[in-house]
Amino acid sequence: MTETPAAGAHMRAELFSQPETWARAAAMRDEQALLPASGARVAVVGCGTSWFMAQSYAALREAAGHGETDAFTAPEFPFARDYDAIVALTRSGTTTEVLGLTSQVKGRTPVIAVVGDTTSPLVDLADTVIGLPFADEKSVVQTRFATTALALFRASLGESLDGAIADAAGVLSDPATTDPALGEAEQYSFLGMGWTIGLAHEAGLKMRESSQSWTESYSAMEYRHGPIAIAAPGRIAWAFGQVPDGLEAQVRATGARFVQHPIDPMADLVRLHNVALERAVAKGLDPDQPRNLTRSVILDD
Asked: Are residues 114 and 89 in contact, defined by beta-carbon separation less than 8 angstroms?
């Protein structure tokens, strides 16, 4: 008789494997060379989690001086604009909007697909394919594929991932480094600046998907322009990386808890993954099969 896996068993195994998958991605020099060269005008597209990772990659690439880089959710791609290349990020390679976009630009703009499933339809449509099958997942809620793709992107820009990998391993090896109270808030606002805005959006999505929690996410500067009104006792404002001067004091003045960890922001996202998992399980939910969600959005004709 086959035993039914415990709730969140796949998500747990996958999120805990992230230091290993990041190291593999960082070592993929040949694959990194397939990404757009410095100076190219690039669009990065995806849906859901992949869109947020696209935002982070675009911000990092442009800030590093490698050229104009825009990020779009696939159905909002501006076809009237000219790009030297499109990077399409998708775990499944079956998302309707990404396949449609790739078909529409075929022969006009090269598409570089970064995929988890290397047998997917996108593989035959794209001009170039970078496969990350070792980071593919069984859980509907994404963790390692998204961050492994971002590790690949960061390494391609010349970043060392050693610190991020060590920070993530530290978070996962010692549960005592994560305050259990982080999973008990009434509401969460996730904040970022620059490339970590994408991480903040992804953190909010992870908590919503896995534990049906009330979450919001913002640029840390924009948070002051209205959203801080939601801050109150029993609620958390969680910042990834640096924040503007004075923001912590403003949050604390509301009675809300301000959270910021002095580690690589991508490793702090791993901490959030674990908090989301434990919060979901404590509520009797299974983040491997969240309510109303499937592994890929495939629309009927």
From this structure: yes
pTM score, whole prediction:
0.94
Q: Are residues 241 and 184 in the same domain?
A: yes
> What's residue 80's pLDDT?
96
Which residue ranges in the chain fall short of pLDDT 50?
1, 297
**DSSP code string of 34-59:** TSPPTT--EEEEESTHHHHHHHHHHH
Contact call for residues 146 and 23 (beta carbons, < 8 A) = no
Range of the domain at 20: 9-156
Contact 210, 282 (CB under 8 A): no
| Residue pLDDT, tens place only, 185-196 | 999 999 999 999
Please report, as a single letter, which amino acid is at residue 66: H
Q: Where do runs of H (alpha helix) occur along the chain?
A: 9-16, 18-26, 29-32, 49-63, 96-105, 121-125, 144-156, 162-173, 196-211, 247-253, 265-282
Per-residue confidence (pLDDT) for residue 293, from 0 to 100: 55
Token output for 187:
């509401």
Beta strand pairing status for 128-131 and 111-115?
A: parallel
Asked if residue 31 is part of any domain, the answer here is yes
